[in-house]
Structure formats: structure tokens, C-alpha cells
UniProtKB/TrEMBL annotation, chain A:
Similarity field: Belongs to the binding-protein-dependent transport system permease family. CysTW subfamily.
Top-level taxon: Bacteria
Record keywords, A-Z: Cell membrane, Membrane, Transmembrane, Transmembrane helix, Transport
Signal peptide: none
PANTHER family: PHOSPHATE TRANSPORT SYSTEM PERMEASE PROTEIN PSTA, PHOSPHATE TRANSPORT SYSTEM PERMEASE PROTEIN PSTA-RELATED
Protein topology in the membrane: Multi-pass membrane protein
Segments crossing the lipid bilayer: 12-36, 75-104, 124-146, 166-185, 292-312
Intracellular or extracellular location(s): Cell inner membrane; Cell membrane
Pfam families, sorted: BPD_transp_1
InterPro entries the record matches: MetI-like (IPR000515), Phosphate_PstA (IPR005672)
Name of this protein: Phosphate transport system permease protein PstA
Annotated ranges, domain ABC transmembrane type-1: 79-311
TrEMBL record, chain B:
InterPro entries from the UniProt entry: AAA+_ATPase (IPR003593), ABC_transporter-like_ATP-bd (IPR003439), ABC_transporter-like_CS (IPR017871), PstB-like (IPR005670)
Domain ABC transporter, residue spans: 9-250
Keywords for this protein: ATP-binding, Nucleotide-binding, Phosphate transport, Transport
NCBIfam families named among the record's database cross-references: 3a0107s01c2 (TIGR00972)
Protein name per the record: Phosphate ABC transporter ATP-binding protein PstB
Parts of the chain that traverse the membrane: none
Keyword Transport annotated: yes
Organismal lineage: Bacteria, Pseudomonadati, Pseudomonadota, Gammaproteobacteria, Chromatiales
Pfam families on file: ABC_tran
Amino acid sequence: MLRNWFRQGAPWIWLNAGAVAMSLLLVFGLLAFIVVQSIGVFWPSELTGHTGEKLLQYLVNWWQFLSGSSGQAGIFPAILGTVLMVLLMSVLVTPLGVLAAVYLHEYAKEGLLLRLIRVAVHNLAGVPSIVFGVFGLGFFVYYLGGNIDNLFFNDSLPTPTFGTPGLLWVSLTLALLTLPVVIVATEQGLAGIPKNLRLGCFALGATKAEVIWKIVLPQASPAMVTALMLAIARAAGEVAPLVFVGVVKSVSELPLSSDFPYLQLQQKITSLSMHIYDAGLQSPDAQRAEPLVFASALVLITLIFILNLLAYRLRKRLALRYRNRPLPE
Amino acid sequence: MTAEFIAKLDVQDLSLKFADKTVLQHINLRIPEHKITAFIGPSGCGKSSLLRSFNRMNELLEDTQTTGEVLLDGKNIYHSEIEVAELRRRVGIVFQKPNPFPHSVYENVAFGLRLQGIKQARQLDELVESALRKAALWDEVRDRLHDSAVNLSGGQQQRLVIARAIAIEPEVLLLDEPASALDPISTLKIEELMYDLKQHYTLVIVTHNMQQAARVSDYTAFLNMGQLIEFDETNKMFTDPSQRATEDYITGRFG
């Protein structure tokens, strides 16, 4: 009886199912914990008052938290900073990563050199992010920024314009940090395209560039969006490396302005992750800060969720447009 | 063995290696214009490789090495000045497994035309319709031109791929076991189609099916172990082959 139970692989299945259950429990537990901790933060503490009035006050409190500036204990600059740095990073990393992946997968000749490059790219994904921060400070801020200042902003020296940490360098550092993720995921997408589609395209007299442009890239576009989703999720959570290159705990001016060029690339920013770190560990009044930390965490999770949802819908549309169902046998 | 015809393709001492493996050895063969030539032989004899060497498809597949010449209208297609893309426009190919692009029926046929720089909607419409008609598919798809091609049946997909190939008016059409993945009715349609097509194109077909070779082709080449054993008119080949090996293969005694 027991022997049979073992032979049928029942313990194995229980172990597997247990692992899945444990993972789900941890993930949903984490989400539930944050929601529970933060949902009541802005509920008015006065005992008196109508429930409707309280609810209204509750929503107003949330709104003030979301839209207030740093001085008013709000997180609007942090939300804006996170969104801007992630979007700018996406604009920088996607073309670079996709082009690199296309070169590696379509053009580079198989051999020792290509293998070494692949290993290097994979290892780059494992480099601790703080190293990218230090590199960003040394190369982007001091070297690139310093040279830009010498060339274009000579008048305002010695006050640096780009030679100091700022939004542009934050996004560039993040782009560098997430580049391997984008390259690897895009390459996997390229490898998944059926060979006979390429051959069919060549057979119609297409050159290699035309095959890549008309068949390979459209087919791989869902994979590129997946790559970007991974990159965004990673980037939005980073704090440590960004402290070097332009993320600060509070800003007096926003990186967006109503005058040309609207986006102030040299401006320092603050981000949700930074805010969570700062409010959680650096605040003198821990009692008061703790609930706000959870509220910020909830906002960060929601933001990433929304960004992912947008990316998911984009991927679905792309996949539908270039759908490639397997043949019925 | 010395048949009288105009040769569209003239294979001269062609040898082919995949990596270090010899696939074809010193093939000499003339493919007649506006006829159907069938390549038969056991699996791995090199007939598909020989077919693909006519539009230099082999070099896309593996690490290949070709020696000898293939003359298309007297010009060696392996000459360094030949543009491979232009060669493949003139010599189309259809593979064993239908490989429609995951676009609409219309866009599949228009694909090659667009590559040729044809952009005018009316001209495209006309050429797409004419190609689909030639491929005997028009009546079945005229109402679903803008549906995805992957929703067609296997037989329809294969005819779509043929339509796609003939839309750009190739001179030679290579068919690599075009009906082996299809049911008998679809196979029959493809065979009828080939018969219609030979008035405009030179066709070369690789097949595992002896009856098919006997039914559709005018000339037959028998290959074995990378060598051309015999080439002759199909009638002669199937009734009175001059080589013992050919007779054994056709009658099913080996292969």
C-alpha cells in the first residue's frame, strides 16, 4: 500500500504542489501584508463623524499623499521621478538592446568570440547593481557630463550643468543595468522564430536585411516587449546605484516644466524606491513614518503593475497582428 | 540519355559538401525548359540538396561547399558577381511543409511583389488575384483574402505558398516534395496545378512517390548516394530503364 503510494510518485507530486503552494503563499502574503498595512493609513482617526464624511476624508488624504510635494509629505515628485526615469530608460535601452541582439543572433558568426560575448552579456546581468552606480558616476557624470559642460555650457562653469548627477545619468545607468536583460530576452525571441519562415522569405528573393526587417523583427516584437517588462520591473526597484547618479531624497524642483524643453534632463530627481528607503530608515519619527512606507510601497507596486499591464496589452496586440499559430497536423 | 531539348538549367560537374560530408558528386544534368523534371531516389540520396543548389538555398542551411557550375540560361549562378536575391527571384522554391507567413492571404501573395517595389494598390490587387487564380486557389479564398493564412487547410496553404512563389513570375519553380504532407485530394490538386504551370515555367520536383513522378513529370532523374544514376524521359525511365539500379528502385526491390 505505502510502497505503491511511493511508486506512483505521490510524494514527488506532493512536493511539487507544496512548492507551488509555498511560492503562491509567499507572494500573495507579501502583497496582502502591504495592502493591509497601508490601506488604513489615511482613515481619519477622529472617532466622531459620519461614515460617508470619513470616507471622503480618507480619499482626500490619499489624494494629498499622492499629489503633494515633498515638503507636504507627499510623494508626487517620487512618482513622477520613477515614471520619468523608467520611461527614459526604456527609450534608451530598447533600441540598443534590440540592435545588439539582432547583431549577435543574425549577423555574428558562431565561434569562440561570439561565445565569449554571450557569456559576458549573461555575466553582466549578474554584476551587483551598485557597481553600475559607481561606473555611472565615474563615466557618465564626471567624464561625459564634464565634457558636455566644457563644450556646451562653458558660460555657466564652474557651476556644472550636466557634470553633476541628474535624470539623464539616472536613466543611462538604468539602461546599462537592464541592457543584458533586454539582449538575452530579445535573443530568445529571435531564436524562437521558425526557420522555414526565414527560408520562405529568402525564397522570394529577399536580401538578409529584408528578411530581418520584414519577418524577423515583427515576429520578435512580443519578445521585445517581454524584455522591456522585465527591465522596467528591475529598474523601478533600484535605489543603491542611483544615489550616485542623481536620485536624492527630496527635490525642490520637478524635472518637468512648462517652458521649452519641458524635460529637464540635468535635474536631480527622487523616486518611490528612494522615498521608501528614506522614509523607512532615515526618518527621525519612526512611529509616524512606518505607515507611510507601506503606503509608498503599495503605490510602487501599483505603478509597476500598471506599466506591466500596458506592456502586456501592447504585446498581445503585436502577437495578434503577427500571429503564428502552429499548423494543424 | 541524350535527349533533344532546350536546357533551362545546365548542371556541370557539380559537387556539394555539408561540412565534411559529401552530398553530391560530379553531377552533370540538363533540365529542359517548360517541362516537369522529377528527381527520385532513396532518402538521403541528395535529390533535395541538388534541387536547392539551383537557387543557392543550401548555403542558408549549413556550412556548405559547392564546386562545379550550374548554368541558368548559360550563366553560372555560382559566379561571384551573381546577386543571390535576384537569382532566387528568378528561381522560386516551395518546400515540403507549407510555410505561409503569419499574415493575411493577400499579404502572403503580395509579399514578394512588395519586395520587388510594387506599391500601387490596384496593380497589387491584380497581380495577387492572377497568382491565386494560377494556383487554383482564388475561388476558395476570394472572400477571405484578409483572413490570416494560418487558418487555411494544409492543402490550401501549400497552394498559397505556390501562388506566393509564382506571383513574382519566376522562370523556374523548384518543388521539394510539395505534396508529401498533404491528403490525396490536395495532392491531386497540386499535381493538376503543376500540369497547368509548366506552360509558363520550368518545373523541377523532388518526390518520394513513384506514381507521382510517373504521372506528372516529362523527364526523370534517378539519384543514389549523391550520384546521378540515370536521366531520361519519364516514359522510357519507367518502362525500360537502362540501368539495373534504376529498375530495382522503381520496381521496389530496394530503397
